[in-house]
Amino acid sequence: MSGLLLYCRGGFETECAREAESYAFELGIDTEAEALPGGGAVFLPLPEEAADELAALPFFRWVFARQCLRVIGHVGNLPERDRTGPIALAVPPAAYCELWLEAADTEAGKPLLPFCRKFAPYLEKALIERKVKLGSPRGPRLHVFFTDKQTAWLATSEPGNASPWPQGIPRLRFPHEAPSRSTMKLAEAIHVFLDQQDQQRYLKQGLRVVDLGAAPGGWTWQFASRGLKVTAVDNGRMDKKLMAEYDVTHVQDDGFRYRPVKPVDWMVCDMVEQPARIAQLVAKWLAEGWCRRSIFNLKLPMKKRYEEYLRCKALIQDTLRKAKVPYRLRFKQLYHDREEVTGYLERRE
């Protein structure tokens, strides 16, 4: 069995499959991805060479996949009294940096997580007895993904080109000082779109930020707590504690009408609005030189979500090409997103 195993948000298997199929089509391969039982994961069958090539695709290009793995085996009908034996026999005897046992982040998958934790040391022992080396600093990561207690998918990932978190889910703590839980979405976006060097350069104290649709201040808090100067634009009320403790200016205005007096370093936007309007707004801010970078959220419709994502992406690209503005654009459906995707747009010199 050869192909890719992709983790995704439950309910977005179709979008993940469409994305995977489009990448395969770019290689000249017409294949059909299938959602695994229980949801939250998709298998894309591919020839060996094509699977290797797509597994090497830069991970940041995947939008709806939380994790992208190269399938190396599949084991079914695992006996209850000896699951370790068949799995250990199916794993190629090679050197791996670590072993992750996982299940989908769905109602069907969550009950399997305690089983994975309990089963892990037994499987690790069986693998070592089979001359499988674990802890190699340069080896791939070995994943064992359970759809139920009788079925396991075996796959690998390259740590430098994959999600660094089990299940592709970041482990972030909610800061109780933040005014709303929406702050987690921006916190995750910062981790996903900016590496440590970028965070030090672009989130420096004193940089200026405009937050469109800011109330009550969940996204504003992420910047203000780092020492950035934030203009929070919203006709709604901002959190009183946030306004009292940080360098935040509240402007009561419509996010679509507001224009900065002078260019700012960041514009961020989490307004509940038609995604195409948000895409056009973000593109205009960058094209006009009103900001250098933006993190924004697109609320996708219930139907044709993948098509709407592609449409919004094209709107941004077309606007900036016509304006002859060099840019970098990325999208990701974050763990803290719901029926939405988050985008990062940067004006490049």
From TrEMBL:
The keyword Repeat does not apply. One of its GO terms (biological process) is rRNA processing. It holds the Pfam family RLMM_N. It comes from the Bacteria. Residues 1-69 form the RlmM ferredoxin-like domain. GO terms for molecular function: methyltransferase activity. Keywords: Cytoplasm, Methyltransferase, rRNA processing, S-adenosyl-L-methionine, Transferase. SUPFAM superfamilies: S-adenosyl-L-methionine-dependent methyltransferases. This is 23S rRNA (Cytidine2498-2'-O)-methyltransferase. Residues 82-157 form the Ribosomal RNA large subunit methyltransferase M THUMP-like domain. Residues 180-273 form the Ribosomal RNA methyltransferase FtsJ domain. The active site is at K299. InterPro entries: RlmM_FDX, RlmM_THUMP-like, RNA_MeTrfase_FtsJ_dom, rRNA_MeTrfase_M, SAM-dependent_MTases_sf. It comes from Sulfuritortus calidifontis. S-adenosyl-L-methionine binds at S182, A215, P216, G217, G218, D234, D254, D270. Gene3D superfamilies: 3.30.2300.20, 3.30.70.2810, Vaccinia Virus protein VP39.
